[in-house]
Amino acid sequence: MKKIIILGAGMVGKAMAIDLSTEYKVKSVDIDQESLNYLSTNYDIQTEVMDVTDENLLAKAIKDFDLVISAVPGFLGLQTIKNVIKNRKDLVDISFLPEGVLDLDDMAKEYGVTVIMDCGVAPGMPNIIAGYHNETMKIENFEYMVGGLPKVRTFPFEYKAPFSPCDVIEEYTRPARYVENGKEIIKPAMSDTELLEFENVGTLEAFNSDGLRSLIYTLNNIPNMKEKTLRYPGHIRMIQALKAAGFLDNKPMKVKGQEFIPFDITTEILFKAWKLEPEEHEFTIMRIMLQGKENGVKKEIVYDLYDEYDPIEKISSMARTTGFTATAAADMILNDVFKEKGMFPPELVGKNPQCYKYILGYLKERNINYIKSERTL
To answer: How far apart are CA 5 and CA 86, in angstroms?
Structure first.
């Protein structure tokens, strides 16, 4: 039986370990013992408390495994990827790191490993879908919008973070890049807000965020590309107010002789306010839209995702939709469906029809359904 080690046992890391433990020998490592206890108590999953930033400990931990999945926070992502590559292990990464990592392609090839990066719900599935259709369609417009939200709207933020609050704040502070008429445009995060209607949910607010990532460079034949994040109406105005008032600043300031960084205090408070409680119901919603010509016919193709908390397995929707995309990729590598060596953003995986169908099929088996519709324009 092949063996997988998962770095990080947060909400998504747990879901991935549970999913893979039915077919593989799985080990989960995390710096927090409490995060690991649930897995070792309830499942046939080996666990170990470990600091993944310790290169020697990491090398020793992953030595006997066939594949590594990295689910560490974004600020640890880049160095973790480098360390795994150096140890010649195939890797699937969902850390949503701020840095671009396509430059690591030569390194991955040199060490003879396969790395699939950004392989979650988003970035991840929109990339796979765009990569697939880009092979047969002259895409003129590509846009997707995505959000993970609590079923119950609670004052004041009407939001709960299904993953690291630090990574959520990244969405609110990192400048948003998109493509318009073939040119890269940079706007502040949280700009260009608009209200949209969704079945099952109602009215949501969409705003610019930096979710295109590698697509800007790998699918640069598409002249218009944009990504937006979805929240309940009014939420983003509160975040804009916090930012404008300085609560998200990283510059140290002194209060009564004590020096502190506003960002650190704010994220600590938000971590508590946004904490998704065990068994709290939430949902993931996404719409992916492509417009262009296929076989001379101008058409629009739309994929809609709506997924809810799983009360049987007690796994959040965001953990399911993010984690199971990554476990699908891991399963695909271990079954030799995808064997190329190097650094691969999901769109370069999705361009292979077999991989596109494999991942969608894997998700469907877990009741995660991307509903596809199309119409001529």
So the answer is: 16
Element holding 77 (H helix, E strand):
helix 74-86
How high does pLDDT run on average in the chain? 93
Contact 9, 29 (CB under 8 A): yes
Domain 125-308 has CATH 3.30.360.10: yes
Q: Average pLDDT for residues 8-21, to the nearest whole number?
A: 94
Is the pLDDT score of 98 beyond 80?
Answer: no
Helix (H) or strand (E) holding 281: none
Cα angle 127, 131, 136 (rounded to 5 degrees) comes to 150
- The helix (run of H) or strand (run of E) holding residue 229 is strand 224-231
- Does position 165 have pLDDT exceeding 80, yes or no? no
Fold of 3-120+318-369: Rossmann fold (3.40.50)
Judge whether 213 and 118 are in contact, CB under 8 Å. yes
Sequence-distant contacts of 172-176: CB under 8 A, at least 24 apart: 172/209, 172/236, 172/239, 172/243, 172/248, 173/243, 173/248, 174/98, 174/209, 174/210, 175/210, 176/208, 176/209, 176/210, 176/227
For position 278, what pLDDT does the model report? 80
Domain with CATH 3.30.360.10 in the chain: 125-308
